[in-house]
Design goal:
single chain, about 260 residues, 2-enoyl-CoA Hydratase, Chain A, domain 1, Lyase 2-enoyl-coa Hydratase, Chain  A, domain 2, six-stranded mixed beta sheet, four-stranded mixed beta sheet, 10 strands, about 45% helix, binds ligand T3D
Length: about 260
């Protein structure tokens, strides 16, 4: 079985990390597959939304701690694992101009939690847990965690999560603003499908620019950001989807967006 199951349907690239016995922890093979699939999804205009989830009872337990080779003569340097395996995943998710949804079906620990937190929409099953597991093995939050967590949850909660490494349940993750939604386990799949269907039939260019504008805002003053909004909005108004949106509104019908 492949360590990553990839299926494209109805404009959605569905990526399922598939090492359930090891809680979908990240080996270099799984990271390479994720990086390949995300790169293809970013470049393919027929794909209008990316969905990332895990097989079995976990979303992802972070770096596979067996795959580092600590007991060999040539263990991998952590900086190389981050630079070549894990950080490219974060860069691809944040960098692609289309929405990425993480469907957190179960436990998300270490880099697994932070990959989820960097997605554009994070939906979690009520039984899922998020763990900044790094401190339990003498490491610091990585995969963007030390940048993302204070911005999403505020400093006090971010530091609490990172310094204590306690599991945070999905409901609290929603209350703290770390994720979009926690839903009952038996409603999870249906809710995920509703979200990806809405995104994959949406005005893709505008959704991509919305994502980009939010990301860019981190480095802008309001005055600078008004200029970006002006320019992005001008670009959005040249799309077919904008014309369709206006036309549908005027004719009291549902817009049929084609993502261009
Ligand atoms: O070099 C570097 O480290 C680079 C840094 C990278 C960033 C990181 O992600 S660092 C953080 C790495 N992740 C962790 O430290 C989490 C380790 N896992 C856990 O703490 C627990 O497994 C969980 C809290 C996630 C889940 O606990 P539980 O009780 O539900 O399951 P379990 O029994 O611990 O795990 C089930 C199996 O998955 C088990 O294997 P076994 O005994 O059935 O053969 C366990 O060893 C395996 N597993 C879980 N996580 C990992 C793993 N195997 C390898 N690597 C893992 N990260």
């Amino acid at each position: 079985m492949s360590v990553l199951i990839e299926e494209t349907r109805d404009g959605v690239a569905r990526l399922t990390m598939n090492r359930p016995q090891q809680l979908n922890s990240l080996t270099s093979e799984l990271c390479a597959s994720l990086n390949d699939s995300l790169t293809r999804a970013a470049a393919d205009s027929a794909i209008r939304c990316v969905l990332l989830t895990g097989a079995g009872r976990a979303f992802c337990a972070g770096q596979d701690l067996d795959d580092i080779g600590l007991d060999t003569k040539t263990p991998r340097q952590i900086k190389d694992i981050l630079e070549y395996d894990i950080n490219p995943i974060i860069r691809l998710i944040r960098g692609m101009d289309k929405p990425v949804v993480c469907a957190v079906n179960g436990v998300a620990a270490g880099a697994g939690a932070n990959i989820a937190f960097c997605a554009d929409i994070v939906i979690a099953a009520a039984s899922a847990r998020f763990i900044q597991a790094f401190r339990h093995i003498g490491l610091i939050p990585d995969a963007g965690g030390s940048w993302l967590l204070p911005r999403l949850a505020g400093n006090a909660r971010a530091l609490g999560m990172a310094l204590l490494g306690e599991p945070l349940n999905a409901e609290k993750a929603e209350q703290w603003g770390l994720i979009w939604k926690s839903v009952a386990d038996d409603e999870f799949i249906d809710e995920v499908e509703k979200i990806v269907s809405s995104l994959a039939t949406g005005p893709t260019t505008a959704l991509g620019m919305t994502k980009r504008a939010f990301i860019e805002s981190a480095g802008h003053s309001l005055m600078e950001h008004l200029n970006l909004e002006r320019d992005f909005q001008q670009a959005a108004s040249t799309t077919e989807d904008y014309k369709e949106g206006i036309n549908a509104f005027m004719n009291k019908r549902k817009a049929q967006f084609h993502g261009r």
